[in-house]
C-alpha cells in the first residue's frame, strides 16, 4: 500500500490525511469544492503547527508531509489508490452515493474503507461490486494523537481485507481492535450509553459538576462524561444514541429526553458555546 485516497477533509479527513502522510504514504485528499479543500488544507497546517509547538511532532518528522499530500475535487484523480478512506458526513445516502462512485472510478484491487462511527458497513458495501473489499476504519479524534483504530468487518468483508488494513494501521502506529458490524461497534457501544446515563442524572437534578466529579475521582476517568458530551456535541451524541436504539430495537438504549430538548434549544455543547457547561 503506497497511495491513499481520503474523501473529505473535515475534522477527521484532515487528521487521517496528516497521519498517513507522516507515516510515508502518498495521500490525495478529495473535497466537494476548491473552497472546502482550502479550508481542509488550512486546518491541516494549523494542526501541524500546534503539534510541533506542543512537541508531539518534530519539524524533522513533518518536513516531508506537504510533498506527500495533494488535493483535488475529483475522485478520478485518486483512481490508482490502493486504499480509500471516506470521511464525509454521517448520512447513509451520502456515503452510499460516494461508494457507488468510488466503485466505478477506483481500481478494482483497491480497498474502500469508511470512517463511519455508527452506520452499517454492510449497507455501505452493498452498493458496490466489491463488498469483500469494503471495511470500516474508525479513527478517533484527534487522529494524529489517538492510539486506537477500530476496524469494522461487515458480513461480507474478507479476511484478506481485514489483514491488509490491520497492517496499514500498525504502520501508522495505531493499536487495533476488530469490531463486528453492529451499531456503536465496540467503543461507542460502551461510551455513548454512559454519556446518555449521565444526562439522565442531570435530568433528575444532579449538577454536571457532581456527576463529572464522581466519574473523574471515583472511576479515574480523565474527563467527566458531561464535559465529554459537550466536546463530542450533544447533537452527535443524540444521533448515535438514536442509532443504537433503532439498530438493536432495545429500550435499554433509549435516548435521554434532556438531550433531545438541548438539541432543540441549540445547546449543542462546546461548538455552540453552551451545553452542560458554558464556553
Ligand atoms: N468528529 C469525530 O469525532 C468523529 C470520530 C470518529 C468518526 N467520525 C466520523 O467521520 C466522518 C466525518 O466526520 P467529521 O467530524 O470529519 O465531519 P466534518 O463535517 O468535519 O467533515 C466532513 C467533510 O466532508 C466533506 N464532504 C461532504 N460531502 C463530500 C463529498 N461528496 N465528497 C468529498 N467531500 C465531501 C465536507 O465538505 C467536510 O469537509 C463521519 O462519518 C463521522 O461519523 C467522526
CATH superfamily of the largest domain: NAD(P)-binding Rossmann-like Domain
Structural class: alpha/beta
**What are the secondary-structure elements, in order, as H or E?**
EHEHHHEEHEHEEHEHHHHH
> Count of DSSP E strands?
8
Mean pLDDT: 96
Q: What fraction, in percent, of the residue positions are helical?
A: 40-55%
Task: Please indicate the percent range of residues in DSSP E strands (runs of 2 or more).
Answer: 5-15%
Structural notes for this entry:
The chain is α/β, with parallel strands linked by helices. It folds into two domains: 3-180, Rossmann fold; 188-271, N-(1-d-carboxylethyl)-l-norvaline Dehydrogenase, domain 2. 47% of the residues lie in helices and 14% in strands. The relative contact order is 0.10.
Describe, in short, the structure shown.
The chain has twelve helices and eight strands. With about 280 residues, it is α/β, with parallel strands linked by helices. It is globular and about 55 Å long.
Compile the SSE list and pairings.
Blueprint: E1 3-7, H1 11-22, E2 26-30, H2 34-53, H3 59-62, H4 65-68, E3 69-72, E4 83-86, H5 92-105, E5 111-114, H6 121-125, E6 134-139, E7 148-153, H7 159-171, E8 175-180, H8 187-203, H9 208-218, H10 225-232, H11 234-248, H12 257-264
Parallel strand pairs: 1-2, 1-4, 2-3, 4-5, 5-6, 7-8
Antiparallel strand pairs: 6-7
Helix pairs in contact: 1-2, 8-10, 8-11, 11-12
Bound molecules: nicotinamide-adenine-dinucleotide.
Amino acid at each position: 500500500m503506497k497511495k491513499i485516497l481520503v474523501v473529505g477533509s473535515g475534522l477527521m479527513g484532515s487528521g487521517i490525511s496528516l497521519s498517513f502522510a507522516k507515516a510515508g504514504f502518498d495521500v490525495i485528499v478529495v473535497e466537494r469544492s476548491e473552497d472546502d479543500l482550502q479550508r481542509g488544507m488550512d486546518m491541516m497546517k494549523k494542526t501541524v503547527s500546534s503539534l510541533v509547538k506542543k512537541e508531539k511532532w518534530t519539524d524533522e518528522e513533518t518536513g516531508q508531509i506537504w510533498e506527500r499530500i495533494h488535493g483535488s475535487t475529483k475522485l478520478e484523480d485518486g483512481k490508482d489508490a490502493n486504499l480509500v478512506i471516506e470521511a464525509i458526513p454521517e448520512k447513509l445516502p451520502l456515503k452510499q452515493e460516494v461508494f457507488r462512485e468510488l466503485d466505478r472510478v477506483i481500481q478494482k484491487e483497491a480497498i474502500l474503507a469508511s470512517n463511519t462511527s455508527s452506520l452499517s458497513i454492510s449497507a455501505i458495501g452493498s452498493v458496490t461490486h466489491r463488498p469483500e473489499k469494503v471495511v470500516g476504519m474508525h479513527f478517533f479524534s484527534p487522529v494524529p494523537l489517538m492510539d486506537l483504530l477500530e476496524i469494522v468487518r461487515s458480513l461480507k468483508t474478507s479476511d484478506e481485507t481485514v489483514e491488509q488494513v490491520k497492517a496499514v494501521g500498525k504502520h501508522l502506529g495505531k493499536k487495533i481492535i476488530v469490531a463486528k458490524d453492529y451499531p456503536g461497534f465496540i467503543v461507542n457501544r460502551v461510551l455513548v450509553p454512559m454519556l446518555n446515563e449521565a444526562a439522565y442524572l442531570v435530568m433528575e437534578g444532579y449538577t454536571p459538576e457532581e456527576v463529572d466529579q464522581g466519574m473523574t475521582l471515583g472511576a479515574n476517568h480523565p474527563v467527566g462524561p458531561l464535559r465529554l458530551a459537550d466536546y463530542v456535541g450533544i447533537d452527535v451524541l443524540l444521533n448515535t444514541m438514536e442509532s443504537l436504539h433503532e439498530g438493536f430495537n432495545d429500550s435499554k438504549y433509549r435516548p435521554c429526553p434532556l438531550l433531545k430538548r438541548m438539541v432543540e434549544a441549540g445547546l449543542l455543547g462546546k461548538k455552540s458555546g453552551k451545553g452542560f457547561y458554558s464556553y
